[in-house]
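Notes from hallway chat w/ T.B., transcribed later so I don't forget. T.B. wanted the structure written out for a chain they're using in a teaching module, and asked if we could keep both sequence and structure tokens in one place. Agreed to drop them here.
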Amino acid sequence: MATSTSLLQAPTSIFSSSSVKAPLSLGKPYPFLVNIKRRRPQCKRIFVLKSAVLDSPPPLPPPADAKSELIPSLKLKLLSIVSGLNRGLSANEDDLQKANAAAKELETVAGPVDLTTDLDKLQGKWKLIYSSAFSSRTLGGSRPGLPTGRLLPVTLGQVFQRIDVVSKDFDNIAEVELGAPWPLPPLEVTATLAHKFELLGSSTIRIIFEKTTVKTRGNLSQLPPLEVPRIPDALRPPSNPGSGEFDITFIDSDTRITRGDRGELRVFVIS
């Protein structure tokens, strides 16, 4: 029978330094000690993973590619709305609102225009496909101008803007058909209103009128152009100061939107 002394010493010998070192060096019993050491790194990994999730930054904004993919569809929407309005001459109030809403949607997605470092975007000949001011049925839009219409002697044809960013030339070109007494055919002319332009700020264009040139087309195209003299500034009425300003609210390689100083919305495509 074991003595009381040996019983008391047995448990102590199990946890003594000599009894622990041998199994650990051999990698044998006492799996509970090995398991404890293996679990500690796992606990740390779980803790780090949770903290990373909790401290993660907010999601990034949508990439620029998403905007570039949306712009073509918004352009198509705007062009579809204005394409059947005869440049705005046949637009009613509902048409004006739809065109304005579509233009604002495109302007918002594309963001502000900055031409200070990219003025070359203006270069070229632009064809007017819509003007909200033409719904007033005059060539001047919201400004005084000749009346238009099928039964009236003046019919508006194509309208262009020719811009040269090097020489700062800014020409408004309008093809006009003037009625004539029967049996004479209508007189077809091209009127060119020559301006110089300057950039104000990042997207505002100021134009200064210089002269008007009228050139006949069709059967009378051989006639030389007629230059209309400029009215002296002292005699010019306040409603016709010879200059104007408008903002370019959207522009890319083939489409341009402008908003005039009297609220006129215009849409151009490259010609």
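Follow-up for T.B.: The two ends are 115 Å apart (CA to CA). Might be a good example for the class.
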